[in-house]
Amino acid sequence: MKNRPVQIGIVQMSCEAEKSLNLEKAALQIRHLARQGAQIICLQELFATPYFCFEENPAYFDLAEPIPGPSTEYFQALARETQTVLIVSLFEHRAPGLYHNTTAVLNADGQYLGKYRKTHIPDDPGFYEKYYFTPGDLGYRIFETAYAKIGVLICWDQWYPEAARLTALHGAEILFYPTAIGWEPDETEAVNQEQYQAWQLIQRSHAVANGIPVVAVNRVGLEAGTLFWGGSFVSNAFGSVVYQASHTQEVSYVFPLDLAQSEQYRRIWPFLRDRRIDTYAPLTQRYLGD
Amino acid sequence: MKNRPVQIGIVQMSCEAEKSLNLEKAALQIRHLARQGAQIICLQELFATPYFCFEENPAYFDLAEPIPGPSTEYFQALARETQTVLIVSLFEHRAPGLYHNTTAVLNADGQYLGKYRKTHIPDDPGFYEKYYFTPGDLGYRIFETAYAKIGVLICWDQWYPEAARLTALHGAEILFYPTAIGWEPDETEAVNQEQYQAWQLIQRSHAVANGIPVVAVNRVGLEAGTLFWGGSFVSNAFGSVVYQASHTQEVSYVFPLDLAQSEQYRRIWPFLRDRRIDTYAPLTQRYLGD
To answer: How far apart are CA A274 and CA B64, in angstroms?
Structure first.
C-alpha cells in the first residue's frame, strides 16, 4: 500500500474578550503552522469568543454571525494565503432568533466548502448550551478537501458512537472534534483524571470502531469558573494516542498522519464488513426497557 | 443514593481437549468463587472445548449441543448449589446443520433464564467462525437475574458500539463479554500491545457511552497457533479499569461493583438524554459514501 501522508495542524488556545483579538491570535498560529508544513488545521470550538455559555444571557446572542459571514471570509483569505484547509468553529446566526453551534470548512484555495451544525447539545451547570444552540439539522457529512475527505463533529457529539459511525460511513478519512471542555477548579485530581480519560477514551474508541484517525482540539485556560483542560490529541486509526498536548499551555503543533493506515487496519480487523445492519433499527428509539 | 453492591466472579482459564475436564475445571472455580461471595459468575467464550475455529473441519460440529441441554443442566445444578448466577458460553446445536455461538444465563436458583446468540461473527486467518456459527437471530436482550439485570454479548460483538448501545437501552445494568481473542505468537510486542489496548479500549468505551460497568472474560493459553491473551478486566461505569487479570495465568477473582454508580455517572454526564434519535436511521445502512 502506498503511503498517504497528510500534515495535521492543531491550535489549542486560551481566549480573549474581544473577537478581533482571537481571530488575530488564531491567524498568527495558522501562518506559523503553515510554514511548518501543516495542510489541514483545526481550531477549537468557539475560539473566536470567550465561552459565553457559563450563564444564560440574551446579550451573548450578539456574538453570533452568519456563516458564511465576516469571520468565514477572514479565514477564507487566510486559507488561500497559506494553502491550508481550515476547520473553523463559530457561533452561527441563521435567522432572527435562530442560532447554531457551527463549524465551517474552508478549502486550501479559500473556497467555502460548507458547514456542520452541532447535533448533540449539552446542558449542565456552567454549560447552558441548550439555551443558545438549536440542535443541528444538517446531518452528518464529509468535506472533500484538497488533502483528505474529512468529517467534522463538535464537542458533545464526541460522546455519541452513533455520530462518529455515521460520519465514517459517509467516507470520512479523518474525524475532527473542535471542543471546549474543562474541569471544575475545586474538584479532586482523581475525578479530574477520570473525566479526562473518559473524554479521550470515547474519542479513541471512534477511531477503533471505524478504523480512521481522530483529532480533538480543545480550549485551554480558566474562564468563568471552568478550567478548560486543553489536552488536545491525535489518535491513530487503531486508538493509539500519537500526540497529546499540554493541559495548561497554548499549543500549536503539526503532526503527520498516514491515511493509508485505515486500509491496513480495516483489512486486519474488518469491522465494517460484519456490521449487522438488520439488527440496528431500534437505535432510533429513546429507550427499550420500558 | 443507596449503594447497590454486587459481587462479580471471573473465571479465566486455559482449556483441555476433553469437554468433561473443562466442565469440571469451571465447576471447581465456580465453587471457589461462590465461597468468596461471588454472585454473578462469567465464564469465557466456548470454555467447554478447545478453540476449534482455528481450522474448518466438519468433525468439530460434533462438539455442539442443544441449549438447554447436557452442559446447561450441569451448570443449572451448580448455580442452584452455589446460589450464583452463571453466564455460560456454549456451542449450540439448534437443528440439523444449524449451529450458533450462544451464551446461556442461569439464575441463582438454577432456573434457565434464556440465551443470547452471538450477533457479529468474525472470520479471519485462524478464526474461521463464519464456517461454524450462524449469525444470531435473537437480537439484543437482558436477563433479570437475582442480583442485577444483565446484558450479555459475545466476543466480536465487543467491537460494535451498536450492540452495546442496544443492550444498554434494554436496561442492562452490567454488560458481560465472554470472549476468546489472542495474539499471533511471532508478532512484535508493539503490535501485541496495540491490539490488546484497542480491545480493552473499545469495551471501556461502551461503559462510558452507556454509563454501565463492563466485564470482559477472556481465554488464556496457547492453542493451535494463537496465544490467547487473557487480560480479563472490569471497567466501571465511566471507563476506568478497576480490575485486570494476567495475560498468562489462569485466574478466578471476585470483584465488587456498585450499581448505584450508573445513576451517578448518568446524572453528571446525561448522554442518554441527548441522543438525537431523529438522526440515527441511516445506521441501518452498510455504507453511505457510495
So the answer is: 23
